Every structure is written in C-alpha cells, then in structure tokens.
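Q: My labmate handed me this sequence with no annotations at all. I'd like to see what the chain might look like in three dimensions before we decide whether it's worth expressing. Could you predict it?
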Amino acid sequence: GTAKMENKALDPKALRDALTQEQVNEFQQAFNLFRKDNDEVITVEELETVLRSLGQTPTKDELATMVNDVDTEGTGRLHLEQFLTMMAVKMASTQDEILECFKFFDKDNDGYIEASELKQVMESLGEPLSMQEIEIMIRALDEGNKGKVSFEDFKKMTQQVK
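A: Here is what I predict for the chain of 162 residues:
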C-alpha cells in the first residue's frame, strides 16, 4: 500500500530516475563546467561552486552531508551519476520544505490559501495587512483566478524568489 509509495519517494535511485532530460542536461552542464583537469569527478569545493551557480547556498556541513549521502566509494568526490542523484534528493527535500510552508498558511487543510488564512498568518507574524493588501497578494499569486492560492501557485512563487 501507501508505505511502499512513501519509501519510493525517498529512494535516491527512484528520485534520480524521475529527473527530466532537461534537468539532467542542466545539472550535467553545471557539473562539466566546474570539473577540474577533465577528470570524471568533482570535489566538495567544486560542488560548492556548482551549487552556488544553481542559486543554492549550502553550508560546509550541508555540503559534507550531501557528498557523504551519495559518495558510495568514500572518496569525497562525486561522479556525474552520484551528482545527479544528490541533486534529485535535494530537489525532493526542497519540495517537502515548500509543502510544509504551504501547510503553515493553509489552516483548514483544503489545499488552498484563502485571503482570511493569509491575513491570519500575516497578523501572527506581526505584519497586519488590510484585506485590500491581502487580496492584492492573492491576485498576484493566483494563476487561475480562483480567488485563492493553490499549492502549484505557491510553488511557482517560491521558485521565482531564489
């Protein structure tokens, strides 16, 4: 049943296989760009440069963890396939963080952020806004003119912020 499905979502190989060709190409270009001496691997230092070029800002500890999670040989260096797996896992965890954030706003858990929910959250964050300001925010994010923000709308907004 569902337990197997959830495990698959966290399975690095399954996540790697789910990357689109476009994503693979983008990550491969970044990987190739920062490889030194035309060897087939990148170091932790090179990885940091690659991730920064992709708009990420990992700490040294996060970098070490990311490498260790996919560095099956324990060399501290990544082959292209290991790098692709790592990026797929990172994208999936980012997706989870976005969903958690969305749920924070979606108080009634109906899959949408309504104006009243956004107003309530903004007030709890010490940013009281008028209903007019809230409606302007909703309109800016609301793709299908539903009068509320779906998870897809919210995800697009978070990807534009970077």
